[in-house]
Inverse folding.
């Protein structure tokens, strides 16, 4: 049985009782936690042009409430900030700082493709982004200082927001629970639970956020795959057409036929559903694609990789790319950066090596080269930069 931190719950029990259902406070999930990064290092990341960051000031420079500035931030910005009442947030810190991967390990029992990123915020005393709801599940790990979290104990699906703000802040919020989080404490929140975190002193919060595609996103992905595979070409047909006294009406019979056809189109797309979803969930977000491309290289041959591994070289998996895999009784597919790579069915059990490990060694390579289709896919992934050699 795999434990879920020190909660006394197994991972399975957490999923059954809390995941997507109700909040959970976990005291000392990471005992004696010390932040692996400092506020200064975080500020450094926020000043990088290719890194997504934001600054939220409760009282803006010109007196406007809740001013949001998008990064890159600069030394001038930090110099003019007040002592209190602001928050700096940096996205995708898990990808920019690979040494922070260990923080995600305890969450990998939830599928990788559901995870979005590790966002890190720093706030001095009274810093907050205001009471709000998110559409995503989030684990809020207190990394430094104390933060007071107030939450609602029921989800709000249609929140009333303060009008005219760039930020989505609840117009009304009556908390049901108040907790002061210390370093190492985690607060898990399912989507749509109102929450309001205020820094009681200088502090940092690490948010492990999960994402969930909308129905329309998934339909769009399926339609793209249907177009590629030339599926769904059957036309609307109405051999049961009956008389209607109005010539311009789209009647309820027509609507019923259309609905049925759309359901049939999804059924017909069944063979491409996994490919559609795999490509969609591994798409590289635009803000990361330039960084992801940095490790791309010429297509290596299998012999070249063999020589490299034999000489003690290892491959590293690029954290800027997303990976997923799927298999059925005929073949296996690996997905990376919105592309699908096929392997034969004997190679299917090797896909977790390519999609889940962080490092590949000579021992792994010995297993991978047993299947030519898998070894060939790894060569292609190296060319794309999804796996890279140490010398990069
Ligand atoms: C924060 O870290 O300040 C905000 C995190 C959140 O509310 O999701
Ligand atoms: Co939030």
């Amino acid at each position: 049985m795999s434990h879920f931190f020190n909660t006394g719950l197994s991972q399975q029990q957490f999923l059954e009782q809390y995941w997507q259902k109700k909040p959970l406070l976990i005291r000392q999930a990471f005992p004696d936690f010390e932040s692996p990064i400092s506020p200064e290092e975080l500020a450094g990341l926020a000043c990088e042009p290719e890194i997504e960051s934001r600054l939220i000031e409760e009282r803006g420079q010109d007196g406007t409430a809740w001013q949001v500035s998008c990064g890159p931030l600069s030394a001038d910005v930090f110099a003019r900030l007040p002592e209190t009442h602001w928050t700096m947030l940096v996205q995708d810190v898990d990808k920019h700082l690979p040494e922070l991967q260990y923080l995600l390990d305890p969450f990998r029992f939830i599928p990788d493709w559901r995870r979005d990123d590790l966002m890190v915020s720093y706030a001095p005393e009274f810093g907050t982004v205001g009471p709000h709801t998110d559409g995503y599940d989030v684990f809020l790990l207190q990394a430094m200082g104390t933060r007071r979290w107030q939450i609602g104990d029921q989800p709000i699906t249609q929140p009333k927001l303060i009008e005219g703000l760039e930020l989505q802040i609840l117009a009304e919020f009556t908390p049901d629970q108040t907790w002061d989080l210390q370093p190492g404490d985690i607060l898990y929140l399912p989507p749509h639970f109102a929450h309001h975190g205020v820094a009681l002193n200088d502090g940092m919060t690490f948010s492990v956020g999960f994402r969930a595609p909308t129905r329309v996103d998934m339909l769009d992905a399926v339609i793209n795959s249907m177009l590629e595979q030339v599926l769904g070409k059957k036309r609307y047909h109405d051999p049961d057409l009956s008389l209607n006294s109005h010539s311009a009406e789209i009647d309820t019979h027509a609507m019923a036929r259309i609905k049925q056809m759309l359901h049939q189109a999804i059924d017909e797309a069944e063979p491409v559903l996994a490919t559609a979803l795999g490509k969609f969930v591994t798409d590289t977000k635009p803000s990361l694609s330039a960084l992801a491309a940095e490790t791309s290289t010429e297509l290596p041959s299998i012999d070249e990789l063999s020589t490299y591994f034999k000489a003690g070289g290892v491959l590293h998996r690029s954290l800027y790319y997303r990976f997923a895999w799927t298999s059925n009784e005929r073949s296996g597919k690996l997905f990376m950066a919105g592309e699908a790579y096929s392997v034969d069915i004997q190679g299917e059990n090797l896909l977790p090596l390519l999609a889940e490990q962080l490092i590949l060694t000579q021992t792994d390579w010995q297993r991978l080269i047993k299947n030519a289709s898998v070894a060939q896919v790894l060569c292609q992934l190296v060319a794309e930069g999804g796996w890279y050699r140490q010398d990069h």
